């Protein structure tokens, strides 16, 4: 079921299919009123240091519901928001909300926000980020942006310029879903990423020896470039043990924690931090 709802399937938008068109138009219309109607929210998924067990940060993930309360998956509404341009306002709302409810309250040290190339190309994006950080009394290093490798985008000059402005603020830039597209290696050549998030499909292929060899090769490539490595989709104890054995820096996945609202997050923070202090002082 997860596969059937996967990014690739949903992003194949067929304008000839009246049903797809209707649903997309409906979502587009609702997205225009979504913020004022309080139909959007953010949940946060913990990012854990696999060696110490410390909570290193959290990723913000957008949630949408229809006016009748039915949830819509990001794999459906994000592509629509990108097509209509609604993503620009939603993205700004997400950055502000993360600063307000997660970072300024010190629930975590670092929070990441997913961004679309559309947002990075908008003039004034970095200035908006700088102003929002300042408004909340935050230093840039506490914020990270995740850029997904999967997007079909030549690494163009506008994007590169925006990224260097963000880096000058101290903001971290992470490469998301590494290994899912063909652009990953060119992204690595063009941009100085702080962290590379290896897509969860690699971990799932680890059930077989061939998959493990592949993952180890990718890890050594990234490590030689001095990148911090995060593996997504850690769903079991076995996954976590394997990542520890491979000396991965950080992990994320249902085994570590499911996405949860900011308020619930504070408890995870205290628990994980306490455990980490115990470990590192030993
Ligand atoms: P992503 O950035 O790669 O986010 C990870 C997705 O994997 C999330 O799905 C998360 O809930 C899911 N996930 C986390 N751990 C596990 C696990 O152990 N197993 C499995 N099977 N799945 C796991 P979600 O929240 O549905 O988001 C889907 C995608 O939508 C995200 O992929 C991201 O590309 C996009 N997205 C979400 N929020 C935003 C946003 O605020 N802005 C933009 N531009 N894109 C967003
Ligand atoms: Mg992400
Ligand atoms: Mg990801
Ligand atoms: Mg992924």
From TrEMBL:
Superkingdom: Bacteria
The EAL domain sits at 24-273
Locate the coiled-coil region(s) and give their ranges. Answer: none
* Signal sequence, start to end: none
Protein name in UniProt: Bifunctional diguanylate cyclase/phosphodiesterase
Give the classification, highest ranks. Answer: Bacteria, Pseudomonadati, Pseudomonadota, Alphaproteobacteria, Hyphomicrobiales
Give from-to of the shown chain within the full protein: 379 to 660 of 660
């Amino acid at each position: 079921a997860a596969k059937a709802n996967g990014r690739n399937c949903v992003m194949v938008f067929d304008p000839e299919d009246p049903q797809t068109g209707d649903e997309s138009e409906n979502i587009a219309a609702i997205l225009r009123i979504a913020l004022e109607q309080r139909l959007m929210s953010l949940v946060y998924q913990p990012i854990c240091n696999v060696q110490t067990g410390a909570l290193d940060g959290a990723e913000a993930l957008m949630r949408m519901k229809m006016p009748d309360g039915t949830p819509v998956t990001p794999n459906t509404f994000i592509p629509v928001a990108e097509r209509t341009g609604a993503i620009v306002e939603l993205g700004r709302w997400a950055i502000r909300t993360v600063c307000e409810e997660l970072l300024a309250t010190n629930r975590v040290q670092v929070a990441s926000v997913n961004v679309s190339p559309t947002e990075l190309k908008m003039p004034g994006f970095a200035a908006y980020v700088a102003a929002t950080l300042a408004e909340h009394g935050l230093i840039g290093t506490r914020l990270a942006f995740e850029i997904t490798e999967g997007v079909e985008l030549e690494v163009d000059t506008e994007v590169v310029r925006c990224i260097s402005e963000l880096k000058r603020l101290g903001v971290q830039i992470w490469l998301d879903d590494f290994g899912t597209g063909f652009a990953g290696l060119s992204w690595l050549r063009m941009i100085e990423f702080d962290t590379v998030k290896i897509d969860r499909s690699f971990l799932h292929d680890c059930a077989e020896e061939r998959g493990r060899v592949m993952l180890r090769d990718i890890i050594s490539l990234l490590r030689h470039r001095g990148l911090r490595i995060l593996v997504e989709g850690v769903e079991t104890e076995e996954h976590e043990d394997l990542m520890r054995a491979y000396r991965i820096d950080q992990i994320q996945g249902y085994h570590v924690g499911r996405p949860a609202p900011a308020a619930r997050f504070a408890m995870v923070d205290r628990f994980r931090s306490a455990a980490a202090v115990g470990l590192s002082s030993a």
